[in-house]
Amino acid sequence: MTSQRHAQATRRTFLARATAAAAIPVTAGLFAGRAEAADATDLPDYAAIPSASLGPALNAQGYYVGQIKGNLYWVTDGYYQAMFLTTRQGVVLVDAPPTIGRNLLRAIEEVTQANGRPSTVTHLVYSHSHADHIGASVIFGKDVVRIGHAETRTLLRRDGDPNRPAPTVTFDDRYVLRVGGERLELTYHGPNHSPDNIFVYAPDQETLMVADVIYPGWVPFTNLAVSQDIPGWVGAHDVAMNYPWKTLVGGHLGRLGVRADGHLQRQYIADLEASTRDAMATVDPTPFFQKYGPAGNGWAIFKTYLNAVAQQAAAPVVAKYTGTLAAADVYTVDNAFTMLESLRIDSGLLGPFGIHP
Ligand SMILES: [Zn+2]
């Protein structure tokens, strides 16, 4: 058996075991097979994940597929999400996360077998160019119509990744995709998480898909979703909430979102910003300059001062959201650091590094 096939067999075995043992949360599947050989004893402990943050159990293949409304469905592996519409002419898929990979084909087959619609994926919409959301595009072959923002095409031509062919149908502001009696509205509202991240709205199903902005039940992924434009990303929450959706597909983790998830994440961001502003105003920079200034180590001053501000900013936010938003204790310091950097370089709140008197 090749090592790759062995790894796949190990993963399948583990997934089957994880599914059989109901006490193991859905998110145990993907990486846990590797943990068997590793020493995890020195790794930190974190607060328990609120049960409301977890999604439905995965099947033996490691995925869950569910109906959102009408002909609109979603798929998850507990880490990533995709969405698809079954139409009279074929399937419209939004995103192809590599961790779900060929389980996308299984999920689509399962649904179309049941509803009698054609199973061929005829259209693949790219939410944005990032490999973790669209890196399994290649498995849909040459004939699928790939649709995305013009900037997505530019970025993917630069990246040259054979697993992510650049979209051939592109748009700048808005594109209405009509296939086999179904409809999706693709809209670009400016840069946020990435320069090309779009909003995909299914009006008949009152469902919005936007990746890497709102994380239902969880704090955002590290450094405010490693967003390239933080003011744009914060503003994208308002853009998302201005759509009249009832269901949100956030692209990550194991469950769908409801409107309360959007309100809660906006509150988390607002609290984080207020706490970061407060920490900037109260952490005394003097000791950092005293310790590292004489040796001329400017980076040590920046690192230790900014880390101290981020730590102080995060503490009350972690305390408030632990037990409500999963992993508040995992990523809030990193999120505070990015909020701090954005307040410094975007808002011009430079603290001890402002205009010299
Ligand atoms: Zn991304």
Task: Describe the overall structure.
This protein has eleven helices and twelve strands. The chain is α/β, with parallel strands linked by helices and 357 residues long. It has two domains: 52-257, Metallo-beta-lactamase, Chain A (4-Layer Sandwich), CATH 3.60.15.10; 268-353, no CATH class. The strands form two sheets. A seven-stranded mixed β-sheet has the order 1-2-3-4-5-6-7. Helix 1 (3-20) crosses helix 2, helix 7 (230-242) runs antiparallel to helix 8 (259-282) and helix 8 packs across helix 10 (298-321). Residues 128, 130, 133, 193-194, 211-212 line the site of zinc ion.
Helix/strand layout:
Layout: H1 3-20, H2 29-35, E1 64-69, E2 72-76, E3 81-86, E4 91-94, H3 103-115, E5 121-125, H4 131-134, E6 145-149, H5 150-159, E7 169-171, E8 174-179, E9 182-187, E10 199-202, E11 207-209, H6 222-226, H7 230-242, E12 247-249, H8 259-282, H9 286-292, H10 298-321, H11 328-345
Helix pairs in contact: 1-2, 7-8, 8-10, 8-11, 9-10, 10-11
Zinc ion is lined by residues 128, 130, 133, 193-194, 211-212.
